[in-house]
Specification:
By secondary structure, the chain is α/β, with parallel strands linked by helices. It has 2 domains: 187 residues, Glycogen Phosphorylase B (Rossmann fold); 173 residues, 3-Layer(aba) Sandwich (Rossmann fold), CATH 3.40.50.2000. The protein contains 16 helices and 13 strands. The strands form 3 sheets. A 6-stranded parallel beta sheet has the order 10-9-8-11-12-13, with helices on both faces. It has a 5-stranded parallel beta sheet with strand order 3-2-1-4-5, sandwiched between helices. Helix 7 packs across helix 10 and helix 8 packs across helix 13. The relative contact order is 0.11.
Length: 375
């Protein structure tokens, strides 16, 4: 079977969706399928080597902010007959809508992976426009599809379908899970971390929905009550929002306890994971959370909110702590982590077991059944 993945962009800074696509394609190759990518964007910001597959990338058309690409759609018109299945990553970008309408016209088989774009949280953005488009256009697109590619039970429950009659497949995103070895001393030496330092890690896109401002306020309380604790903030976001976060750190007088790394390449990220003691993502909405599984695969227990859709799979395996999306709850969990050392050791020992649910080996039968059912 030949599969074409269509996505609005694969630039490095897009983070999670690109990481997920890379892992899905790797799993498809293990199943013996051929996978290609059709996308649009900026060549300079794309790491082509990470995908190990053919990528057809064309520049965006005006207005670029809507991810429209006439060249990409022209390529699809000439080549769609070469593929058996199409997986559409997202829904609201112009390139995706035009691609689906073309496939629908020619009765080609396609699956929609919403990647959060049909989540109630996201649909609230430009709400009224999306309601109109939803019932006039998106419902037809969903009705003609072969199903929705959801990554968790909670996503499948919450996803907005505009009353379309559509099948929902639950396919957790695959990850490379094994004991990771790297030079942790490199990261600790670079940022002057001692063996006594207990290091919390926030590694994610710097975005308002990730709960970073709440985390910083909770961490301020923790710094007042505990010594030798640090918070690593790794990742990038929009410059305006990054400046806002840095102002909050300054106002809270936290720079002695906060390490701001910016974007980390593969080697730097590995060393960072191996240097940290606890991962924390107090998000107000998280469709999946790739970095959570990454942390677990490095034997790092995690703190997450119940807004993270895979939280049950983590907490049921006792590999982390659950908090609410507020400062007091985040602080209470941080306090628990630092005080109850025996419980921390137990959760650390359970991390690989929790991560294994998302390994290629564990998910291979699920994905095989999914593709075979589509055939």
């Amino acid at each position: 079977m030949r599969i074409l993945h269509i996505i609005a962009g694969i630039e490095i800074e897009l983070g999670g969706p690109v990481f997920a696509l890379k892992n899905i394609i790797k799993l498809e190759k293990e199943l013996g399928y051929e996978s290609d990518i059709l996308t649009c964007g900026n060549l300079k910001n794309v790491d082509f080597g990470q995908f190990n597959t053919r990528i057809f990338l064309y520049r965006r058309s005006f207005p670029r902010r809507f991810s429209q690409s006439n060249l990409s759609i022209n390529w699809l018109k000439q080549n769609f007959r070469n593929y058996d299945l199409f997986i559409i990553h997202g829904i609201w970008a112009v390139i995706l809508l035009e691609a689906v309408l073309l496939l629908r016209k020619h009765n080609k088989k396609y699956v929609i992976r919403p990647a959060g774009s049909l989540d109630p949280f996201d649909v609230q953005k430009k709400k009224y426009l999306k309601i109109i488009l939803g019932y006039l256009l998106i419902r037809k697109i969903l009705n003609s599809s072969s199903g929705l590619f959801c990554t968790s039970d909670i996503e499948a429950e919450k996803v907005i379908t505009y009353n379309a009659n559509i099948k929902k497949y639950i396919l957790p995103l695959p990850h490379q899970v094994s004991i990771r070895n790297s030079d942790s001393n490199f990261f600790r030496k670079k940022y002057n971390l001692t063996e006594k330092d207990f290091v919390f890690l926030f590694l994610s896109r710097i975005d308002y929905k990730k709960g970073l401002i709440l985390l910083l306020n909770a961490f301020r309380k923790a710094v007042n009550n505990f010594t030798n604790i640090k918070l690593v903030i790794a990742g990038t976001g929009k410059k305006k929002y990054e400046k806002k976060i840095k102002r909050v750190i300054n106002d809270l007088k936290l720079w002695e306890n906060v390490i701001w790394t910016g974007f980390l390449n593969k080697e730097e990220k590995e060393s960072c994971f191996n240097s940290c003691n606890c991962y924390i993502l107090p998000s107000m909405n998280e469709n999946f959370g790739n970095s959570i599984i990454e942390a677990l695969s490095y034997k790092i227990p995690v703190i997450i909110t119940d807004n993270v859709y895979i939280w049950r799979k983590i907490i049921d395996n006792d590999a982390g702590w659950l908090c609410k999306y507020n400062v007091d709850s985040i602080y209470e969990v941080i306090e628990d982590v630092l005080i109850n050392k025996d419980d921390y050791i137990i959760k650390k020992e359970n991390t690989l077991k929790a991560a294994e649910q998302f390994s290629y080996k564990s998910l291979l039968p699920t994905y095989k059944l999914f593709y075979e059912s589509l055939l």
